[in-house]
Amino acid sequence: MARETDEVRNFTLREETGEETSRFTGKTPRQAALKAARRFDPADSESEATRIRFRIRETGTKKLHIYEGWAWRDEAPPDKPDWMPETITEANVSKEGVEHLDEL
Predict the structure, then answer these.
(1) What residues contact 38, with CB distance under 8 A and at least 6 apart?
(2) Does 74 fall in a domain?
(3) Does residue 66 form part of some domain?
């Protein structure tokens, strides 16, 4: 069931060891996962990108969202603002499922 609020939620990147390293915000888990995937080492094109499996946990819950993500370099759009570089990092994610932690 989808949430009815527009509040921003906090998610942490959870390593296999259980250590939570980076924090990402988003209204949905996918939005936070896209931000996390942009930090991956980008490939030269989307077709060459390596898919990496990762997990994020919403702060205050025991729910782990499992994603497969990949990143690649792309040219900035022609109407880009002046501060944006010529080459940007794009990312995509695919949700693999949800796990529930027994304890935190």
Answers:
(1) 71, 89, 90, 91
(2) yes
(3) yes
69 in a structural domain: yes
Chain-centre distance of CA 28, in angstroms?
10
The tally of domains found in the chain comes to 1
Residue 84 located in a structural domain: yes
Distances (CA, A) of 5 to 8, 9, 27, 101: 9, 10, 9, 25
Per-residue pLDDT of the chain (104 residues; tens, 9 = 90+): 555 667 899 999 999 888 999 999 999 999 999 999 999 999 999 999 999 999 999 999 999 999 999 999 999 999 999 999 999 999 999 999 999 988 76
The label of the residue with tokens 């998610």 reads 11
Residue type for 55, please? R
What is the domain extent for residue 80?
9-100
The tokens describing 50, both together, are 């390596």
Global confidence as pTM = 0.87
